[in-house]
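Protocol step 4 of 6.
Sequence for Diacylglycerol kinase catalytic region (Rhodomicrobium vannielii) entered exactly as in the expression construct, tag removed. Do not edit the line below.
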Amino acid sequence: MRVHAVINSRAGQALGVSGESLADKTRAAFEAAGHAITTDLVEPATMGAALDRAVAAKPDVLLAGGGDGTVTSAARRVLGTDIALAILPLGTVNRLARDLGIPLTPDAALDALASGEFRKIDVAEVNGEAFLCNSLLGLPPKISAERQALRGHPLGERLRGYFALLKTVIASRGHLDIAIDGAETERMRVRVFSLAVSNNLYDERPSLVFSRKALSDGKLGVYIAKPHSGLGLIWVLARAALGLWRGDDRLEQLSASEVTIMTRRRKTLRLSNDGEVVRMRTPLRYRVRPAALTVLAPVSKDAR
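Step 5 output, structure tokens:
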């Protein structure tokens, strides 16, 4: 197996591991398992160009070392090719790595991947842009954008900015029209604080990071938070983190293979796709692409 690893040189700092050490560990793990490997250690600003060069070399596996943004960027580049994606989780959340059962410490992750197996998983997309985990509307992307704008500012100024944002959002819940599986003549109109579209359904079990056991069921999950107050929103999120969203009339859950989200006034909406904040023109058309991505993952317990 020919592996081309592209590792964010800054990503391991939070784990107390230097970029050079990560590159050495990566080479050693895959060579010990009998694989040929090329390793590129790159600065965040040149990650995109490095991923392009790696894909052009046509390896069997592209290993992306970084956070969720790096992983999604790598996945978009290998879609439609014969190249599989491997993940060395070096971010804060590491959503897909968790769902694939990849250990979150570099040494354990590399050992598991070097002796891993290939799996096919679904990919979701909105208006043609692929994402692996979720697409968020409403409060979450606004908080992400505000956090980026306030980065580097004093703590007091950041707190005032977040408080002002929360007041604005609470006072201006948006109306959305939602059509399921192409039935635009039977659209539902909802007033929401936030809405999430997930690539496959979330598990109903306690977790601060929502997880998915199934990654190839060919379904989108749609989660609509529609409380009547800011405190209600906090309560909904707390219950969801405890896996208690079923039966809560303030959080509606739907399942579909296609979802269309429309607005009657706004021409664009701000989204957070796998943590990347973007603006997209409406309507937002979501669909799932079954088994579109090959990933290298730890050997499943059933196969051991």
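Step 6, annotate. The chain has a mean pLDDT of 85.
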